[in-house]
Amino acid sequence: MQTDIDPRNLIGRKAFDRKGTKLGTVDEVYLDDATGIPEWAAIRMGLFGRDAFVPLEPSELIEGTLRVPFDRSLIKDAPDFGVGRHLSPEQELQLYHHYGLDIAPPPPLNHNSTNTTTQEDP
């Protein structure tokens, strides 16, 4: 998704699935803890429906609406963690798996262990 978009501008926008079916309205936007980049949107699905989390990458903001490249049924079945709370890394991982999105594991810690002993040839 375009990273120059203010996440506050997403609140209240209509959201549509990949087929153009209306999903609902963006209720909340969740930022990545490390980067501050908008990562997830909670979409209010129906008047009495629950909020469903959708990934903002690879979603697009087109002509003032959020286009989510997944089917409504998949979005509707996304894990429900409730809105207004912080998403834990484990919850985010569940959402990534639900949507079939591959995420790169964090890079391994670089332990520059050097061998301080030297062996001499006899």
Automatic annotation (TrEMBL):
GO cellular component term of the entry, any: plasma membrane light-harvesting complex
Domain spans labelled PRC-barrel: 8-73
Domain of life: Bacteria
Listed Polar residues bias regions: 110-122
Signal peptide residues on this chain, from the entry's feature table: none
Pfam (any one): PRC
Region described as Disordered: spans on this chain: 103-122
Gene Ontology process terms (BP): photosynthesis, light reaction
Protein name: Photosystem reaction center subunit H
Organism of origin: Streptomyces capitiformicae
Highest classification ranks of the organism: Bacteria, Bacillati, Actinomycetota, Actinomycetes, Kitasatosporales
